[in-house]
Amino acid sequence: VEVQPPSSAGALQESLESTIGQKMAGVVAGGMLSNGMNSVAQVFLDVEVGAIDAGKDAFAEEPTSGDKQGEDDDAWGSKTQQDHVANGGSLEKAEDFAEKGLVVVRSFIHKSHCTVTLMCLVIAAGLVASSVIGIGGGFGANFKPLQYVHAIYNIFFAGLIVLLDGEKSMFGRLGKYQLLLFHWLPCLSTMRGRALLHVYVGSLNLAMMSNASNFFWWVVYLSLGGCLCLAGVLLVAHHHASACCRRRKQRAVERAHAMAKDAGGASKEISNQVHGAVAWGQAEVLEIRVFVRSNHFTVKLFCFFIALGLMFFSILGFFNLFHALFNPFQYLLGVYNIMFAFVMLILDGQASWCEKCGDPRKKIFRAAPILASEVGRAAFHFYVGSINIVMMPDSIFWQIVYGSLGGSLCLASFLMVSAVVKICPTESIALEAHAFCLFYTCAYDDFYLFYVEAYSDFYLFYAYLQSTAGHVLALTFDPAAPSDQEGKLAQSVLSEEYERHGEHMDTLRGPKLSELNRARFANAPELRFCLEGCKLSCLLTLLSPSRSVGSPSEAMSTGMPADEDLMARHQRTNAEAKKWREAAETAISEATVLGAELEALRRRHDSLRKRKEAREERHHHDALSLAASQAAEAVKVRLTNQEAMARARAERRRLQEELELQRAATERREQE
Fold first, then answer.
1. FRET label pair with 655: which of 223, 537, 562, 672, CA 20 to 30 Å apart?
2. Continuous segment of H or E residues that includes residue 588
3. How far apart are CA 585 and CA 594, in angstroms?
4. CA-CA distance, 629 to 392, in Å (whole number)?
5. Nearest to 512 by CA among 488, 487, 495, 536
């Protein structure tokens, strides 16, 4: 992939994303063309052209005009596109098919509050202890089959809660299972998803209170179920509080951007990168790519009708028909059965049914990519079937109904698993027009690693690892019957590679090349390989770009570049990638400096704001003091006036009394 150093803001964004942890990968869908070994060359051409197109779209940069090799690549790509058009547009069909079948999930792993985490770990320990004691018959436990199954699943859910809420450092080497859990169930990486799980397990334990054998187990179920539901509520509250804090911080960053606007447009772009880098550093990025695998038509039809029956009889049970007489646990399980049946109908129904209703099928796969695989769907069907097969109502009719539904679901799960782990010699899958396979291109320092993921819907034969060359040699052919000459050519190439690297091939799962007499092609349905067992991690130390597909003479005949050309392309790409990394590191350093300046400006702004608030508070206090003194003076004057008026009234009364006394004395003298 020809990578140019980033020069625009969009390229800077992409470079920082890749630097902080996003893998530099191009996803290409390669179509199967005709004519034997030419299809091998064409598949690798598809990878090169698609990766170059992905690089152009991501970095919005055209190849350097002075780079002759880039011009050759463009000419090579144009010829490849013409070949695709000539062969019926297989690349376009493959891209359209991959767009519908490929599910991509990008999210962050949320961390719970330490209090909620500690609470959930204690509850998980309580679930394990109570389940073990109950299975052993302690404290008067008289379990029925339903309670035994519930106790077993309680242990499973307790381990799940520990994996979700525990820190990766707690598990040591087992920490990879936490990431694996988040990979297959990304909905549990969010606090709302974990809250739903806690409420689900808690509600089941609360409903089991009706089946408690004595008061002790009634209290146990009440405590565990209530605490789990409370933990779910706390997780939801923590999620909304974190969202509010995140929005508040975002508004603060926007204000900082407004303050730094005078520094120039580049500073704003780099500050955006600082904010993004800080966000990526605080939360662990979760990126998942999974391809939706389909079950056999018979299994899908079988599961679809079972789901319809489960939903129908669960709804009937609520109306107490046929003397159902359910207890609270069975009513609650009926509600969950309706939800489970709805999910099964979406999974096993036609994908076109959901496209006009908001596409809930894709939403389910994004929330739980494990359901996109046969094993994940088998585990889901087995769980629903196992809890229904042991739910024994009092009525014989309902015992038969739930036993039949649960047993059918368990049987369907075994059929799904057997289709994955077993080589089906008589199974034939209809190919629409072409067979497609997905290629992932991962860039490393010294080589490019091409590998293939084969799925149950694809016929991919003779795809194996060259452990010293670092490539997967994928011989794919047109569904039309190949000629004997093509078969001999393919067999000779495979035999040569097997003789060189046979000791590494023996470690891979599946039939060995030495056991096959002739080449198998896509139109031969009597043999199908399950290649998901080919693990690349154990062979990474042996990889090097020392050899292309076949020998140099074969490379010339098939149109593939020779070894020297591959090495030159790798070296040039590594040099360009080094420039790109240096540009990204320079941008990050500049962003760090600007971030420090923004932090200093923010601190100065806070200091000025605090001084202004202190000055305003002092002025306000002075105004209040002046008003209080004026009010006191007014009160004092008022009191003085009141005292003077009182003295005047007293003097007037005294004068009136003296006048009356004089008048009385005058009247007495006159009388005398």
1. 672
2. helix 563-671
3. 14
4. 85
5. 495
